[in-house]
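REQUEST FORM: STRUCTURE PREDICTION
Request ID: SP-0412
Submitted by: Lab K.M.
Chain count: 1
Length (residues): 354
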Amino acid sequence: MANRVLAGVMPFDIHDPSDMSIIGTITAQTDAGINTTVESDEVRGGEANQLISIYYYGSKVQLKITSATFNFDYLALKMGANISVGSDVKYSESITTTVANQITVTKTPVAFPGTTKVVGSYKLASETDDAWKVITFTGSVATVSDLPSGSSICVKYFYNDSSARGFKIPSNIIPSTVYLSAQLPEFAAGTETGVFNVKSRIGTLNVIIPRFIFDPNTELAVTSSGHATMDLTGSALVNYSGDCSGSGYYAILSETTEGGDAFTGAKSIVIANSNIDLATAGTSTLQVYAMYNGITVPKLLDNSLLTFTSSTTATATVGSHTGVVTAVANGTTTIEAVVTAHTGLTATALVTVA
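STATUS: Completed
RESULT:
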Protein backbone atom coordinates (compact mmCIF):
# COMPACT_ATOMS: atom_id res chain seq x y z
CA MET A 1 0.00 0.00 0.00
CA ALA A 2 1.15 3.56 -0.69
CA ASN A 3 2.27 5.88 2.07
CA ARG A 4 -0.50 8.02 3.51
CA VAL A 5 -0.81 11.06 5.74
CA LEU A 6 -2.76 10.63 8.98
CA ALA A 7 -4.27 13.98 9.95
CA GLY A 8 -7.30 15.66 11.43
CA VAL A 9 -9.75 14.27 13.95
CA MET A 10 -12.94 12.27 13.58
CA PRO A 11 -15.76 11.22 15.93
CA PHE A 12 -15.10 8.74 18.71
CA ASP A 13 -18.16 6.69 19.62
CA ILE A 14 -18.55 5.52 23.22
CA HIS A 15 -20.59 2.30 23.49
CA ASP A 16 -22.24 0.69 26.50
CA PRO A 17 -20.56 -2.77 26.67
CA SER A 18 -23.79 -4.37 27.91
CA ASP A 19 -25.79 -3.75 24.73
CA MET A 20 -23.32 -1.85 22.45
CA SER A 21 -25.63 1.19 22.29
CA ILE A 22 -23.90 4.52 21.65
CA ILE A 23 -23.94 6.53 24.87
CA GLY A 24 -21.86 9.39 23.54
CA THR A 25 -19.98 10.72 20.54
CA ILE A 26 -16.89 12.88 20.94
CA THR A 27 -16.97 15.22 17.96
CA ALA A 28 -15.15 18.40 19.00
CA GLN A 29 -11.66 17.10 19.69
CA THR A 30 -8.72 19.44 19.60
CA ASP A 31 -6.33 16.50 19.44
CA ALA A 32 -6.29 12.72 19.62
CA GLY A 33 -3.60 10.07 19.50
CA ILE A 34 -2.74 6.43 20.14
CA ASN A 35 0.29 5.74 22.30
CA THR A 36 1.74 2.23 22.54
CA THR A 37 4.48 1.51 25.07
CA VAL A 38 6.32 -1.69 25.89
CA GLU A 39 8.95 -2.21 28.58
CA SER A 40 11.98 -4.31 27.71
CA ASP A 41 14.86 -6.20 29.26
CA GLU A 42 18.09 -6.86 27.37
CA VAL A 43 19.44 -10.40 27.44
CA ARG A 44 23.25 -10.22 27.34
CA GLY A 45 26.04 -12.70 27.86
CA GLY A 46 29.29 -14.01 26.53
CA GLU A 47 32.82 -12.66 26.68
CA ALA A 48 31.90 -9.14 25.53
CA ASN A 49 28.46 -9.14 27.11
CA GLN A 50 26.88 -9.22 23.65
CA LEU A 51 23.22 -8.50 23.08
CA ILE A 52 21.64 -11.93 22.64
CA SER A 53 17.98 -11.03 22.69
CA ILE A 54 15.46 -8.54 24.02
CA TYR A 55 12.56 -9.59 26.22
CA TYR A 56 9.52 -7.34 25.89
CA TYR A 57 6.87 -7.11 28.61
CA GLY A 58 4.53 -4.66 30.32
CA SER A 59 2.75 -3.55 27.13
CA LYS A 60 0.27 -0.69 27.29
CA VAL A 61 -1.99 1.08 24.80
CA GLN A 62 -3.27 4.55 25.66
CA LEU A 63 -5.65 6.78 23.77
CA LYS A 64 -5.35 10.54 24.23
CA ILE A 65 -8.45 12.60 23.46
CA THR A 66 -8.95 16.26 24.25
CA SER A 67 -12.39 17.71 23.64
CA ALA A 68 -12.94 21.42 23.14
CA THR A 69 -16.41 21.10 24.66
CA PHE A 70 -17.64 19.98 28.08
CA ASN A 71 -19.92 16.99 28.52
CA PHE A 72 -21.38 16.16 31.94
CA ASP A 73 -21.92 12.50 31.01
CA TYR A 74 -18.26 12.02 30.11
CA LEU A 75 -17.23 13.56 33.43
CA ALA A 76 -19.41 11.01 35.23
CA LEU A 77 -17.84 8.18 33.20
CA LYS A 78 -14.38 9.35 34.24
CA MET A 79 -15.49 9.26 37.88
CA GLY A 80 -17.29 5.94 37.54
CA ALA A 81 -20.50 7.55 38.79
CA ASN A 82 -24.17 7.29 37.86
CA ILE A 83 -26.16 10.44 37.16
CA SER A 84 -29.41 11.09 39.03
CA VAL A 85 -32.15 13.45 37.89
CA GLY A 86 -33.22 16.02 40.47
CA SER A 87 -30.43 17.75 42.34
CA ASP A 88 -29.95 20.47 44.96
CA VAL A 89 -28.56 23.59 43.30
CA LYS A 90 -27.75 27.13 44.38
CA TYR A 91 -30.21 29.84 43.39
CA SER A 92 -29.96 33.61 43.40
CA GLU A 93 -32.83 36.05 43.08
CA SER A 94 -33.75 39.67 43.62
CA ILE A 95 -36.97 40.40 45.49
CA THR A 96 -38.80 43.29 47.05
CA THR A 97 -40.16 42.57 50.53
CA THR A 98 -43.93 42.94 51.05
CA VAL A 99 -43.93 42.35 54.80
CA ALA A 100 -41.60 44.08 57.24
CA ASN A 101 -38.84 41.89 58.69
CA GLN A 102 -39.87 38.98 56.46
CA ILE A 103 -38.24 37.53 53.35
CA THR A 104 -40.35 35.27 51.15
CA VAL A 105 -38.51 33.57 48.27
CA THR A 106 -39.99 32.01 45.13
CA LYS A 107 -38.51 28.54 45.58
CA THR A 108 -38.56 26.13 48.51
CA PRO A 109 -35.16 26.26 50.20
CA VAL A 110 -33.49 22.99 51.22
CA ALA A 111 -30.50 22.23 53.42
CA PHE A 112 -27.03 22.95 52.11
CA PRO A 113 -25.89 19.69 50.45
CA GLY A 114 -24.10 17.53 53.00
CA THR A 115 -25.65 19.40 55.96
CA THR A 116 -28.98 19.78 57.76
CA LYS A 117 -28.91 23.58 57.70
CA VAL A 118 -31.80 25.10 55.73
CA VAL A 119 -30.28 28.56 55.48
CA GLY A 120 -29.47 31.20 52.94
CA SER A 121 -27.87 34.62 52.67
CA TYR A 122 -29.23 38.06 51.89
CA LYS A 123 -28.12 41.67 51.51
CA LEU A 124 -29.66 44.90 50.42
CA ALA A 125 -29.31 45.47 46.70
CA SER A 126 -27.51 48.72 47.50
CA GLU A 127 -24.92 47.04 49.73
CA THR A 128 -21.51 45.74 48.69
CA ASP A 129 -20.60 42.05 48.42
CA ASP A 130 -19.14 41.96 51.94
CA ALA A 131 -22.55 42.65 53.51
CA TRP A 132 -24.16 39.20 53.14
CA LYS A 133 -26.02 37.98 56.24
CA VAL A 134 -27.23 34.45 57.10
CA ILE A 135 -30.96 33.74 57.33
CA THR A 136 -32.87 30.62 58.39
CA PHE A 137 -35.89 29.46 56.40
CA THR A 138 -39.14 27.90 57.51
CA GLY A 139 -40.65 26.77 54.26
CA SER A 140 -40.07 29.67 51.88
CA VAL A 141 -40.04 32.36 54.59
CA ALA A 142 -37.18 33.77 56.65
CA THR A 143 -37.68 36.24 59.53
CA VAL A 144 -35.11 39.01 60.04
CA SER A 145 -34.91 42.24 61.98
CA ASP A 146 -34.79 45.86 60.89
CA LEU A 147 -35.93 45.16 57.31
CA PRO A 148 -38.70 47.54 56.19
CA SER A 149 -41.40 46.49 53.77
CA GLY A 150 -40.54 47.44 50.20
CA SER A 151 -36.84 46.76 50.62
CA SER A 152 -34.97 45.65 47.53
CA ILE A 153 -32.74 42.71 48.46
CA CYS A 154 -30.61 39.94 46.95
CA VAL A 155 -31.03 36.38 48.25
CA LYS A 156 -29.03 33.18 47.75
CA TYR A 157 -30.07 29.69 48.87
CA PHE A 158 -30.28 26.06 47.76
CA TYR A 159 -33.36 24.38 46.36
CA ASN A 160 -34.11 21.10 44.57
CA ASP A 161 -34.24 21.56 40.81
CA SER A 162 -36.19 18.66 39.29
CA SER A 163 -34.51 19.22 35.93
CA ALA A 164 -30.97 19.22 37.26
CA ARG A 165 -28.71 16.19 36.87
CA GLY A 166 -26.03 15.36 39.38
CA PHE A 167 -23.66 12.80 40.84
CA LYS A 168 -21.29 12.53 43.76
CA ILE A 169 -17.58 12.05 43.20
CA PRO A 170 -16.79 8.98 45.33
CA SER A 171 -13.75 8.96 47.56
CA ASN A 172 -12.66 5.69 45.93
CA ILE A 173 -12.85 6.75 42.29
CA ILE A 174 -13.09 3.79 39.92
CA PRO A 175 -13.60 5.04 36.34
CA SER A 176 -16.00 3.36 33.95
CA THR A 177 -14.95 0.83 31.31
CA VAL A 178 -16.56 1.29 27.89
CA TYR A 179 -16.30 0.01 24.31
CA LEU A 180 -14.67 2.62 22.08
CA SER A 181 -14.62 2.92 18.29
CA ALA A 182 -13.06 5.67 16.21
CA GLN A 183 -12.18 6.58 12.65
CA LEU A 184 -9.21 8.77 11.71
CA PRO A 185 -8.90 10.23 8.21
CA GLU A 186 -6.04 9.34 5.88
CA PHE A 187 -4.89 11.55 3.01
CA ALA A 188 -2.78 10.98 -0.08
CA ALA A 189 0.86 11.77 0.62
CA GLY A 190 1.39 13.05 -2.93
CA THR A 191 4.80 13.89 -4.35
CA GLU A 192 5.40 17.05 -2.35
CA THR A 193 6.62 16.37 1.16
CA GLY A 194 4.20 17.60 3.79
CA VAL A 195 1.68 18.92 1.28
CA PHE A 196 -1.84 17.54 1.08
CA ASN A 197 -5.34 18.74 0.55
CA VAL A 198 -8.53 17.76 2.38
CA LYS A 199 -10.00 16.75 -0.98
CA SER A 200 -7.33 14.07 -1.33
CA ARG A 201 -8.69 11.88 1.45
CA ILE A 202 -8.11 8.32 0.32
CA GLY A 203 -8.84 6.17 3.35
CA THR A 204 -9.66 5.74 7.01
CA LEU A 205 -7.80 4.25 9.95
CA ASN A 206 -10.37 2.39 12.05
CA VAL A 207 -9.67 1.90 15.76
CA ILE A 208 -11.65 -0.45 18.01
CA ILE A 209 -10.90 -0.82 21.72
CA PRO A 210 -13.28 -3.40 23.25
CA ARG A 211 -12.33 -2.47 26.84
CA PHE A 212 -11.37 1.18 27.36
CA ILE A 213 -11.01 2.62 30.86
CA PHE A 214 -10.97 6.38 31.36
CA ASP A 215 -8.20 8.12 33.22
CA PRO A 216 -10.00 9.69 36.24
CA ASN A 217 -7.47 12.51 36.59
CA THR A 218 -9.41 15.61 35.59
CA GLU A 219 -8.84 19.33 35.49
CA LEU A 220 -11.53 21.76 34.42
CA ALA A 221 -9.60 25.01 34.29
CA VAL A 222 -11.30 28.13 33.00
CA THR A 223 -10.03 31.66 32.57
CA SER A 224 -11.66 35.01 31.95
CA SER A 225 -10.42 34.94 28.38
CA GLY A 226 -10.77 31.25 27.52
CA HIS A 227 -12.64 28.01 28.03
CA ALA A 228 -11.95 24.66 29.63
CA THR A 229 -11.03 21.66 27.51
CA MET A 230 -11.97 18.16 28.60
CA ASP A 231 -9.34 15.46 28.88
CA LEU A 232 -10.80 12.07 27.92
CA THR A 233 -7.54 10.15 27.96
CA GLY A 234 -7.63 6.50 28.96
CA SER A 235 -6.06 3.08 28.53
CA ALA A 236 -7.01 -0.13 26.75
CA LEU A 237 -7.58 -3.14 28.99
CA VAL A 238 -6.75 -6.61 27.73
CA ASN A 239 -9.60 -8.40 25.98
CA TYR A 240 -9.67 -12.19 25.71
CA SER A 241 -12.93 -12.56 23.78
CA GLY A 242 -12.44 -14.27 20.42
CA ASP A 243 -8.74 -14.84 21.03
CA CYS A 244 -7.43 -18.39 21.34
CA SER A 245 -3.83 -17.49 22.11
CA GLY A 246 -4.51 -16.89 25.79
CA SER A 247 -2.59 -13.62 25.70
CA GLY A 248 -5.52 -11.47 24.56
CA TYR A 249 -5.31 -8.15 22.73
CA TYR A 250 -5.82 -4.44 23.40
CA ALA A 251 -7.22 -3.04 20.17
CA ILE A 252 -8.14 -3.81 16.57
CA LEU A 253 -6.82 -1.57 13.81
CA SER A 254 -7.95 -1.68 10.20
CA GLU A 255 -7.44 0.51 7.16
CA THR A 256 -10.06 1.19 4.51
CA THR A 257 -9.57 2.72 1.07
CA GLU A 258 -12.07 5.11 -0.50
CA GLY A 259 -13.75 3.27 -3.38
CA GLY A 260 -11.79 0.11 -2.61
CA ASP A 261 -12.94 -3.49 -2.84
CA ALA A 262 -11.68 -6.99 -1.97
CA PHE A 263 -8.87 -6.65 -4.51
CA THR A 264 -7.44 -3.31 -3.43
CA GLY A 265 -3.69 -3.83 -3.12
CA ALA A 266 -3.80 -7.33 -4.62
CA LYS A 267 -0.82 -8.09 -6.88
CA SER A 268 -2.03 -11.44 -8.21
CA ILE A 269 -4.35 -14.37 -7.60
CA VAL A 270 -3.38 -18.03 -7.28
CA ILE A 271 -5.31 -21.29 -7.24
CA ALA A 272 -4.41 -23.29 -4.14
CA ASN A 273 -4.16 -26.62 -6.03
CA SER A 274 -3.04 -25.86 -9.57
CA ASN A 275 -2.74 -29.57 -10.51
CA ILE A 276 -5.94 -31.50 -9.96
CA ASP A 277 -6.45 -35.22 -10.61
CA LEU A 278 -10.03 -36.46 -10.88
CA ALA A 279 -11.79 -39.66 -11.76
CA THR A 280 -14.68 -39.52 -14.23
CA ALA A 281 -17.72 -37.77 -12.64
CA GLY A 282 -15.51 -36.61 -9.77
CA THR A 283 -15.73 -33.00 -8.52
CA SER A 284 -13.45 -30.50 -6.85
CA THR A 285 -14.05 -26.90 -5.72
CA LEU A 286 -11.26 -24.50 -6.59
CA GLN A 287 -9.88 -22.28 -3.85
CA VAL A 288 -8.49 -19.00 -5.10
CA TYR A 289 -6.37 -16.61 -3.02
CA ALA A 290 -5.50 -12.95 -3.53
CA MET A 291 -1.79 -12.28 -3.02
CA TYR A 292 -0.34 -9.06 -1.64
CA ASN A 293 3.13 -7.61 -1.24
CA GLY A 294 4.76 -7.03 2.11
CA ILE A 295 3.40 -8.56 5.33
CA THR A 296 -0.24 -8.83 4.23
CA VAL A 297 -1.30 -12.47 4.32
CA PRO A 298 -3.12 -14.09 1.34
CA LYS A 299 -6.91 -13.86 1.39
CA LEU A 300 -9.26 -16.67 0.40
CA LEU A 301 -11.70 -15.24 -2.15
CA ASP A 302 -15.39 -15.84 -2.55
CA ASN A 303 -15.74 -17.67 -5.88
CA SER A 304 -18.76 -15.54 -6.75
CA LEU A 305 -16.29 -12.70 -7.40
CA LEU A 306 -14.56 -14.77 -10.07
CA THR A 307 -15.35 -16.08 -13.53
CA PHE A 308 -14.15 -19.63 -14.31
CA THR A 309 -13.81 -21.19 -17.76
CA SER A 310 -12.60 -24.59 -18.99
CA SER A 311 -10.50 -24.84 -22.15
CA THR A 312 -11.84 -28.32 -22.91
CA THR A 313 -15.37 -28.89 -21.63
CA ALA A 314 -15.35 -32.40 -23.09
CA THR A 315 -12.78 -33.30 -20.41
CA ALA A 316 -14.06 -31.23 -17.47
CA THR A 317 -16.56 -28.45 -16.89
CA VAL A 318 -16.49 -25.73 -14.25
CA GLY A 319 -19.19 -23.60 -12.65
CA SER A 320 -18.68 -20.10 -14.01
CA HIS A 321 -19.03 -18.44 -10.60
CA THR A 322 -18.79 -21.42 -8.23
CA GLY A 323 -15.42 -22.85 -9.21
CA VAL A 324 -16.81 -26.42 -8.96
CA VAL A 325 -14.91 -28.63 -11.44
CA THR A 326 -16.69 -31.74 -12.72
CA ALA A 327 -14.74 -34.46 -14.57
CA VAL A 328 -16.43 -35.60 -17.82
CA ALA A 329 -13.99 -37.86 -19.71
CA ASN A 330 -10.30 -38.86 -19.71
CA GLY A 331 -7.91 -36.12 -20.75
CA THR A 332 -6.55 -32.78 -19.58
CA THR A 333 -7.95 -29.28 -19.55
CA THR A 334 -6.95 -25.91 -18.24
CA ILE A 335 -9.25 -24.03 -15.90
CA GLU A 336 -8.84 -20.26 -15.91
CA ALA A 337 -9.99 -18.05 -13.04
CA VAL A 338 -10.47 -14.33 -13.72
CA VAL A 339 -11.51 -11.65 -11.25
CA THR A 340 -14.74 -10.42 -12.80
CA ALA A 341 -14.25 -6.77 -11.81
CA HIS A 342 -10.48 -6.79 -12.41
CA THR A 343 -9.79 -8.87 -15.51
CA GLY A 344 -6.06 -8.31 -15.23
CA LEU A 345 -5.97 -10.69 -12.25
CA THR A 346 -5.95 -14.27 -13.58
CA ALA A 347 -4.76 -17.71 -12.57
CA THR A 348 -4.89 -21.21 -14.10
CA ALA A 349 -5.09 -24.80 -12.93
CA LEU A 350 -4.45 -28.03 -14.85
CA VAL A 351 -7.09 -30.74 -14.49
CA THR A 352 -6.30 -34.33 -15.40
CA VAL A 353 -9.16 -36.83 -15.70
CA ALA A 354 -8.22 -40.50 -15.64
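NOTES: Confidence is low (pLDDT under 50) at residues 192-198.
Reviewed by: T.R.
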